[in-house]
Design goal:
The strands form three sheets. Strands 4, 14, 15, 16, 18, 19, 20, 21 and 22 form a nine-stranded mixed beta sheet that branches. Strands 5-6-7-8-9-11-12-13 form an eight-stranded parallel β-barrel, surrounded by five helices. The chain has 438 residues and is of the alpha/beta class. The protein has 13 helices and 22 strands. The structure holds ligand LLP. Ligand LLP binds next to α11 and α12.
Length: 438
């Protein structure tokens, strides 16, 4: 069986000839202008590699798509919280969407100014986290329950800090995605029921230190059709109108995140076009309201801007089934195990002669059957010692990594043009044991 040419992810990840590393007849996948083979040699594997040009391009597509409307792109830190990536985005003017004190601490570390463009979401905010956000002076709290509103009011009064809040209302909109990452239905733990929102705004505005400032929604993640976004914005627009009629000064609409990316080999439409369609879906219903729109994209900005580079340790055949055992595991990239997620896997070096393909399972070394990256996948034949790149792992990759099986979490490298920088070192045995006592 002949192999098809593996997919690429321009502008970040493309095959180029690299005469220094391999024979001239071969192509090596590069991140921007830097060969992944060279990076694997220098920093070892498994290794996350990010492309700054891809991150910039996707952030700017968002900016372009929404340029007709007052807005702030609040990058969702949970997707990839590496400090260098946060700093890159902050320098481009991004705000941030955070869900914990830890994430806020990261923002404060890279830029005090960015804190003022930060929204705080999440169903379980702790008093200490609320205090930190109040004293840092964030833009807005997205409140998810009456109890949280009470706690926010108490902490704000205690610290004598005014807090702007939005109620995260649950629009009960169905969006096609994996059940674990769908959030906008009434049976989910997120937000408050639509009909209860008005009462919460009344309660909120009765507290001296609280000020109703916005309406927020988030209907789920990895949503590739824009219809559900439009539907939820229609509901938001009518809520904004009725709240204003009730004398609440609603200036912000936080549309949440959730715009999906194409994990399959090749995209049917480009990201610029999808971003434009998304912008139309959101802006249509909000027209004439004169609100400041907040967006919380995570995956759509960093997902295709990262790959996980891994080395083949062994090939093994069990009862006719061909396994490729690699040095990365579910501890480095959990998405296939947790969501049965699909990620393209491509050889880092593409020999002109190596065009044969075979059906394989790509698995990691962890002692779980669920430790896999692909089942029954048609791949170019790879040998022991060869490098593979798992694509579209810039979002929800490293952030979900763990030390299960006492494995050390991988290193991360950020490439910008011809420059590459280690932005997180590989964990060592010393790091692994450091928090423990005997
Ligand atoms: N805003 C809120 C309130 C969210 O809950 C999320 C994601 C986002 C923004 C960013 O969503 P994005 O634009 O990245 O889709 N671990 C899963 C994804 C979980 C998403 C959780 N919330 C995965 O690997 O697919």
């Amino acid at each position: 069986m002949k192999a098809e040419r593996p997919p690429e992810r321009p502008p970040g990840f493309t095959y180029r000839s690299d005469k220094r590393i391999v024979r001239a007849s071969q192509f090596t996948m590069h991140a921007d202008d830097v060969s992944l083979a060279m990076l694997a040699e220098r920093y070892g594997t498994p290794l996350y590699v990010y492309s700054a040009s891809a991150i910039r391009e996707r952030y700017q597509e968002f900016e372009r798509a929404f340029q007709g409307c007052e807005h702030t792109v609040c990058y969702s830190v949970k997707a990839n919280s590496n400090l260098s990536i946060l700093r890159l985005l902050s320098r481009m003017g991004a705000g941030f969407d955070i869900v914990s004190g830890g994430e806020l601490h990261r923002i404060a570390e890279i830029s005090r100014k960015s804190a003022a463009k930060t929204v705080f979401s999440g169903v379980g905010k702790l008093a200490g986290e609320i205090d930190l956000a109040l004293s840092t002076g964030i833009l807005m709290f997205n409140v998810e329950s009456a109890s949280e509103l009470d706690l926010l009011a108490a902490r704000a009064a205690h610290l004598r800090k005014r807090a702007r809040f939005a109620v995260r209302a649950n629009p009960d909109v169905t969006a096609e995605t994996h059940p674990y990452i769908s959030t906008g239905l009434h049976e989910h733990k997120f937000g408050v029921p639509w009909r209860d929102a008005g009462e919460l705004y009344r309660l909120g505005d009765s507290f001296p230190y609280l000020k109703a400032a916005g309406v927020s929604v988030h209907i789920g993640s990895q949503i590739t059709e824009v219809g559900p976004f439009r539907e939820s914005m229609e509901r938001v627009a009518s809520l904004v109108r009725s709240l204003r009629a009730d004398h609440h000064d609603i200036r912000y609409v936080d549309a949440g995140g959730g715009l999906g990316i194409v994990y399959e080999p090749n995209a049917a439409i480009g990201f610029a076009k999808l971003a434009r369609q998304y912008a139309q879906a959101l802006l249509g219903p909000l027209k004439s309201l004169g609100v400041h729109l907040l967006l919380e994209p995570g995956r759509a900005i960093v997902g295709p801007a990262g790959v996980l580079v891994t080395r083949v340790i062994y090939r093994k055949r069990n009862e006719g089934k061909q396994f490729v055992v690699v040095d990365a595991a579910m501890t480095d990239l959990l998405r296939p195990s947790l969501y049965d997620a699909y990620h393209e896997i491509v050889p880092v070096v593409l020999g002109a002669d190596s065009s044969a393909a075979e059906k394989v399972d790509v698995v990691g070394p962890v002692c779980e059957t669920g430790d896999f990256f692909a089942h029954g996948r048609q791949l170019r034949v790879v040998g022991e010692g060869d490098l593979l790149a798992i694509l579209d792992t810039g979002a929800y990759g490293m952030v979900l990594a763990s030390n299960y099986n006492s494995r050390m979490r991988p290193a991360e490298v950020l490439v910008d043009g011809a420059r590459s920088r280690l932005v997180r070192k590989r964990e060592s045995l010393r790091d692994l044991l450091a928090p423990e006592r005997i």
